[in-house]
Amino acid sequence: MGRLLSDLIADASYLEIEGADHFAWILPNWRDLDDAIIVHATGKSVARTTTRQFGAVLFTDIVDSTEQSASIGDAKWRAVLDRHDRTARSLIDGHRGRVVKSTGDGLLAVFDGPSQGVECGVKMCDALHGIGIEIRAGIHAGEIEVHDDGDISGIAVNLAARVEQQAADGELWASSTVRDLMLGGSACFAERGEHELKGIDGSWRLFAVASA
């Protein structure tokens, strides 16, 4: 029907926007639709601003989420995710962080400095374990690109995701950059060896982090 309308309406153009819902304005990529409308109506591209700034990037993921959701069913799994989100978001807010987005079975958050991110990550692992939810988490610090829609990107973000993928169940792992930035602080870093991280040059020393 969309193709038919584009053929019948004068000066119309047909464009498919990726997404799983007809209510496109509530999807994460809602700007794709809005930008297309603006460009079509004005003939001018939409200017987007991106700034670079320092940030500590924290990724989390629920351990064995696919197996758990299959074993307990959709309704009970939704309740698990709700408990996870309430606990995690409360801790992130309490450590002056910002939730960038949900990753489905985890969260991406950013903090002004590594100390807040590390303390939050450790407490998140402990708090969620206390309510029966096991997560793994990874943190890296560096320059990130912050987009005007609040999303973040860059090598530092990718590296944090790779650190989280290496982390052991129930633990927060940090890059050597985070460890070096926090020398003299109260967190305890236990070395977990050298790791090759997908898409990242060289090998990286990773550390499991615990409270003092």
Structural notes for this entry:
- The protein has 212 residues and is α+β, with helices and mostly antiparallel strands.
- Strands 1, 2, 3, 4, 5, 6, 7 and 8 form an 8-stranded mixed beta sheet that branches.
- The longest helix has 21 residues.
- The mean pLDDT is 91.
Q: Which terms summarize this structure?
A:
single chain, 212 residues, alpha+beta, Alpha-Beta Plaits, 8-stranded mixed sheet, 7 helices, 8 strands, 28% strand, globular
Structural class: alpha+beta
CATH architecture heading of the largest domain? 2-Layer Sandwich
The average pLDDT value, as a whole number, equals 91
Q: Count up the domains.
A: 2
Kindly report how far apart the N and C termini lie.
62 Å
Remind me, CATH topology of the largest domain? Alpha-Beta Plaits
- Shape call: globular
Gyration radius from CA atoms, angstroms: 20 Å
What name goes with the CATH superfamily of the largest domain? Nucleotide cyclase, GGDEF domain
Number of helical segments with 4 or more residues: 7
Q: Outline of this structure?
A:
With 212 residues, this protein is an alpha+beta fold.
